[in-house]
Amino acid sequence: KTLGASHGDTLAAVSALAGLYQEQGKLADAEELLQQQLVLLQADKGPEHPQTRQAVQELASLMTVQGKLASAEGLLKRTLLSQQELLGPDHSDTVATARSLTGLYLSEGKLLEAKPLLVRTLEHDERLHGTDHEQTVSTMLSLARVHQAAGDVAEAERLCRHAVAAECVRSAPGAPLAMSAKHALADALLAKGKPTEAEPLVLSAFHLREASLGVDHGDT
Fold it and tell me: Does 207 share its domain with 170?
């Protein structure tokens, strides 16, 4: 009461208590606490404030854990629309919320909904970081998977080839993102009926994983 509901120390205490509830399996209690915190933050600091966005992320994550995907989706969509209006589409908080919503869409298999968000996020990453940055490559691979699932294998291959080329310059051969890029390109090539081109990529990724993780590891 002395500090106020939106004071930093109060928010930290609420987050800690919500985390404790989650560890104890009291997910409904944790959700109620985070819901109350979000309402207070929206009223006191506004939807565009970083603390409000953090509260949205925590609540959406908890909803997702509970299988309340529709509720999490609605929360993130409302937050994204508000941030786009108040902060602009290229603000870091807006982009962060777009990434969270995209991840949720992908987990739900809603590729049509995820695609425009990924396209805009990739454009943002390329403007901010350049075409070969780790964040850009990661977004590029997500978009490539969506294109491939939608049947646009040629575009998936184009994006994956760029990702592989960027990672060859930027990362060590066994870096996780580099191996993901090779796997994605191999999948695209196989989907296009190019097994001869896909084979060396698959073998390269296999040998790198075998060397770093061991032959009996699940990812190998």
Answer: yes
The tens digit of pLDDT for each residue in 203-216 reads 887 777 666 665 55
Q: Can you read off the two tokens belonging to residue 215? A: 């032959």
- In 3D space, the residue among 40, 34, 8, 1 whose CA is nearest the CA of residue 20 turns out to be 34
Domain end residue (candidates: 66, 84, 108): 108
Q: Name the packing angle between helices 111-129 and 134-149 (round to 10°).
A: 150
Q: Is the pLDDT of residue 1 over 50?
A: no
Q: Is the pLDDT of residue 129 over 90?
A: yes
CA 126 – CA 86 distance, rounded (Å)? 23
pLDDT score of 67? 92
Indicate if 128 and 198 belong to the same structural domain.
Answer: yes
In angstroms, the CA 101 to CA 45 distance is 22
- Three-state SS for 122-157 is HHHHHHHHCCCCHHHHHHHHHHHHHHHHCCCHHHHH
Full-model pTM = 0.80
Same domain, 162 and 199: yes
